[in-house]
Amino acid sequence: MSAIIEIKNLVKHYGDVHAVNDLTLSIPQGICFGLLGPNGAGKSTTIEITEGILPATSGEILYKGKPLSDAFREQAGIQFQATELQEFLTVEETLRLFHDLYPKTMPMDELIELCNLDELLKRDNKNLSGGQRQRLLLALALVNNPEIVFLDEPTTGLDPQARRNFWDLIKLIRTRNKTIVLTTHYMDEAYELCDEIVIVDKGKIIAQGTPASLLTNHFGETIVQLPEKVLSESKAQELDFVSVTRNDWTEIQTKDTHQTIEKLLSANIPLSQIRLREWSLEDLFIALTGKQLRH
Prior knowledge:
- The chain is an alpha/beta fold.
- It folds into two domains: 3-215, P-loop containing nucleotide triphosphate hydrolases (Rossmann fold), CATH 3.40.50.300; 220-278, Alpha-Beta Plaits (2-Layer Sandwich), CATH 3.30.70.980.
- Helices cover 33% and strands 28% of the residues.
- It is built from eleven helices and 14 strands.
- Strands 6-7-8-3-9-10 form a six-stranded mixed sheet. A four-stranded antiparallel sheet has the order 2-1-4-5, covered by helices on one side.
- The two termini are 37 Å apart.
């Protein structure tokens, strides 16, 4: 699969702060590509340089094998994390305003249907709910019928229902062979939507791959959970388990659930409250970037 975006040896310094530190990656065409990282990791700076908003200290960004140019700006759509909409305009007026700015556009009827805006057309922008507002902003990012769409934390602050609705829209856009670059702090969102993810910390890539392959490569297949009062972490380690205690539960990492349960039974550990769960991207994210609060 050919790369639509290539980032080569990207560096960005703010004085003595190295926000991006010799970062290199390729984004294949036609996938949903996730860029994850804690606050201050350099992901937003990387995306803004890729979008052509910030200049790089050094390095190169290629779009379809060529440096960023007017062709990229005409073929890219961006939904920023925070965007102010003009008050006293309706949704329909806002769409038409942006629609008239581009020489090549998606038909209005198609755009309205795609982002489920039909019932909102006569509503003033200031009267939109959070989910409705994000759907309109997504439509504005798609108004020029882009080949690549950048979505910067598009579901932050939305309720679960609105988030799921937005996920469905992203999946629908993905079926149109558009490349989506997604930044998000929601690990379940990244797992659900992304074909490939990169985790960035301190301006460098620390993990890359499909969500499933990353979990398989970094962890065992299953987590066995027992209340700490039943199985302490020290007792688990005596039984030669890799374990950790969280929120009064001891978690055992295992690639052989059957063998682990047999070992617990042999040690007379009561299993009436046993729970099993799979590893998640959140587990991976914390394991790689740490638990320390970032600002």
